[in-house]
Amino acid sequence: MTMDTQHEFQPGQVIRRSLGFKAQVQVPLKADYHSAIVEAMQTNGHTLSVGPLTFKLAKEFGFCYGVDRAVDLAYESLARFPGKRIYLTDEIIHNPRVNERLRELGIRFLRGTYAAQEQLGDLGSGDVAIIPAFGVPTKDQAALQERGCIVVDATCGSVVNVWRRVESYAKDQFTAIIHGKYWHEETIATASRVTQYPAGKCLIVLDKPQARVVCDYIVRGGSRAAFLQTFAGAISEGFDPERDLVRVGVANQTTMLSSESLEIGEMLRAAMAARYGAASAGDHFRSFDTICSATQERQDAIIALAQDPTIDLFLIVGGFKSSNTAHLCEIASQSQPAYHIEGARGIVSLEEIEHKPVSQPEPRRSRRWLPAGRVTIGLTAGASTPNRLLGEVIERIAALRGHTALPTTHAGHPA
Ligand code: SF4
Hints:
The structure is a single chain. The protein has helices at residues 26-33, 36-43, 65-80, 96-104, 138-146, 157-171, 185-195, 208-220, 224-230, 241-244, 258-276, 281-284, 293-305, 323-332, 387-400, and strands at 14-15, 47-50, 53-57, 86-88, 108-109, 128-131, 150-153, 175-179, 202-205, 248-252, 285-287, 313-317, 338-341, 352-355, 364-367, 375-381, 408-410, 413-414. By secondary structure, it is of the alpha/beta class. The protein folds into three domains: 14-25 and 65-156, 3-Layer(aba) Sandwich (Rossmann fold); 44-63 and 294-410, 4-hydroxy-3-methylbut-2-enyl diphosphate reductase, catalytic domain (Cobalt-precorrin-4 Transmethylase, domain 1); 158-291, 4-hydroxy-3-methylbut-2-enyl diphosphate reductase, catalytic domain (Cobalt-precorrin-4 Transmethylase, domain 1), CATH 3.40.1010.20. Strands 1-7-6-4-5 form a five-stranded parallel sheet, sandwiched between helices. A hairpin with a 2-residue loop joins β2 (47-50) and β3 (53-57). α6 (157-171) packs parallel to α7 (185-195) and α8 packs parallel to α11. The protein starts with 13 loop residues before the first strand and ends with a strand. Iron/sulfur cluster binds at residues 64-67, 133, 156, 158-159, 254-255, 292, 294-295, 324, 383.
């Protein structure tokens, strides 16, 4: 159902659905993010051949339903509220092209790389505040409403599902153990859903080695001080491992590596069974896989593409801050060299590529990334990557090799 475009919104109102301009914004969205090359590949077996270059695209890639909705709502806000000050609390998604475009269109950012001068406290009645796909901490949402902003809530439904899960843990006095990155906006927002309850406790584990530390503490105890130091910044205030690891519920940031999340869940289940006995596991342990379906589908698709023996290397396109893109690169790198690039600018030359290696904090340049002669490149893109960026990568490589990236119907047969 669309909203009446003349409807007046009240200060403090939270809007979670279309603003009634969905059809109108399709033209600018297509102009900004669409790629004819990628569209042609989708109808041609996800393959494109250009001279000696073959590109093979994963079956699932690029914008997910949550990102589609968030970007739509940002464009709809621009169409619905001309003349009003429109803010994003932070990056709408982790893709520089999209954030830069929204800034060009006049949306101002309160935090992060694109932050303008204003702080949340500078906003007032009549301003429009868009909440990104990751959500915001509860106190920020409350502050925006108290200040009388019209709040356009683009939080993804899959993130809200995680919130419901961890809130149920907090209500039942289970500590939420979240497999995620404690500095990531989504996980910060999720943790706030736990700590809004007076007895709510949470602990964020980054990976299996950290999960092992927690499991060891559950089974054998240990140094409280060392535990607290290991998880500094990743625990709720006043966290006491003696008291707060007796009943635990597991959840995960929606974009983590699915296989690792499942392993961490099993590690914790086994630790609680070892500590309290399998018979009373239900009193001490709960678990729910909160990886979103879009993340799972993209990970499954790159796992499938990695089985293709003809692929020489992978290019994984997405923002360097994008968690789900990094995990796609991690999966692909287990079969062939894989390079996580932000876009065509990453293809510095046929010799050199700027990419972010798996598990490294910063991008770097590598040489001899592209073999000479015939080469097959596996491609995918994170859930926050517009198709336009994928198409530009293909065009750039083809142009450097002296070809124009014309869509083809079959490998080697121009349409
Ligand atoms: S990656 Fe998943 S949780 Fe994140 S916006 Fe997309 S669908 Fe939602």
